[in-house]
Design brief:
2 domains; 8 helices; transmembrane; DUF2062; membrane
C-alpha cells in the first residue's frame, strides 16, 4: 500500500499543488491516527466517485481543509480508475434511474449501449465515455452522489471501527544493547 501513497516531497514538488504546497508542512496532515486516516479515506472515496477528473488535486485540497491525511486521501481516489470507471458509472446510472423512479426497460438500455458504442468508435475511448456520461444526465449524477455518500460513510466507519492502535514498543532491560 505504501508504494501507492505519494510522499510529502512528491506532493510538495507537484506543479499542480503549488497553491497549497505551503500547507503540506503541517505535521497534522501527515499523522496516521484513526481520525485523520478515517477522514482521509472518506474524502478520497467521495471525491473519487464525484469527480471524473483532477480527483487527486481536489482530495488533497479538501484533506487540507478538513485535516485529513493528505497522501491517504489522494490514494483513496483510486477507487475509480480506468478499470473500475465503466462498471461504477453503469451502476451509478442504474441506481440513479431507480432513485428517480424511471422505468428500467430493456429497449432504453440497448439504445444507450449502442449509442455509447458508436461514440467510442467516433470519438475515441475517453472522449466517448465522457460524452456518454454527459448524455446520461440526472440519473448518473444522482447515482454517483449516492455512491459517493455511501462509500465515504462506509470507508470512514470501517477505518474507525477496524483501527487498532499499536502499543509503543519499549525494550526491556534484557533487550537493550550493552552500553560501552
Amino acid at each position: 500500500m505504501k508504494r501507492w501513497i505519494p510522499t510529502r516531497e512528491q506532493l510538495r514538488r507537484s506543479k499542480w499543488l503549488r497553491p497549497v504546497a505551503h500547507h503540506l508542512d503541517n505535521e497534522r496532515l501527515w499523522r496516521t491516527d484513526r481520525g485523520s486516516v478515517a477522514r482521509a479515506v472518506a474524502i478520497g472515496v467521495f471525491v473519487g466517485f464525484m469527480l471524473p477528473v483532477a480527483q487527486f488535486l481536489f482530495a488533497i485540497a479538501v484533506a487540507i481543509a478538513l485535516r485529513g491525511h493528505v497522501a491517504i486521501a489522494a490514494a483513496a481516489t483510486l477507487i475509480t480508475n480506468p478499470f473500475t470507471f465503466p462498471p461504477i458509472y453503469w451502476a451509478a446510472y442504474k441506481i440513479g434511474r431507480f432513485l428517480l423512479g424511471e422505468p428500467d426497460d430493456e429497449a432504453a438500455a440497448l439504445r444507450v449501449e449502442s449509442e455509447t458504442a458508436a461514440l467510442l468508435e467516433q470519438q475515441g475511448f475517453i472522449e466517448g465515455l465522457w460524452t456518454a456520461a454527459q448524455s446520461a444526465g440526472a440519473p448518473l449524477l444522482v447515482g454517483l452522489a449516492s455512491l459517493a455518500v455511501i462509500g465515504a460513510a462506509t470507508g470512514f466507519t470501517l477505518v474507525w471501527l477496524l483501527w487498532r492502535p499499536r502499543p509503543e514498543h519499549r525494550p526491556d532491560e534484557d533487550e537493550r544493547p550493552p552500553e560501552q
